[in-house]
Amino acid sequence: MTVVIIDYGSGNLRSAAKAFERAASAAGPKIQVTSSAADVSCATRIVLPGVGAFADCKRGVEALPGMRSALEEAVIRRGVPFLGICVGMQLMARFGFENGKHEGFGWIDGEVVALAPDNGLKVPHMGWNDLCLAAPGHAVLDGLDSRTHVYFVHGYHLRCAKPAEVIATVAYGEALTAVVGRDNIIGTQFHPEKSQQAGLRLIANFLTWRP
Q1: What pLDDT sits at residue 197?
Q2: Which overall architecture, per CATH, does domain 2-208 show?
């Protein structure tokens, strides 16, 4: 098994790779950080991290030769398990509205919009917060519950059109999407690689997930 973490110039690649290596067993999958579409085509698990603006991250993915089509073929047509992290999750939406309107991958029916919390809450939403499981029983969240603390850093959030695709939320002025997914794709607004034991548990679950 090969787990590919896509390097497109955005994301905590070192910390993400270390977290995946730590979560994998000694005889577990190979963790590969790559910018090669050929590697993505051969992967048995695909991870798309992301830090920064929606449009910049989208351009970064599309600047890699053949990467966009390799992702579509592997994830959508062949059903390879996919994990998007932070902006990597947001890119699954139809559109992002950071510094204009930009098309996303269109894998999740929703839009990425600015946080506008009340009660004087700060933007970006940064720090530890509790998950609230909207769809208990998802294999990737096995061992986590609605009291699980995870680490967030974001100023935009994914507003889903289909409630069934929201797997967990986080309270920050309103119920924001914290985990989204359908079929073989899942995404986290929080950073599992920064979420200590809870994050390692989620990563380990993803490595054995068979959607």
Answers
A1: 95
A2: 3-Layer(aba) Sandwich (3.40)
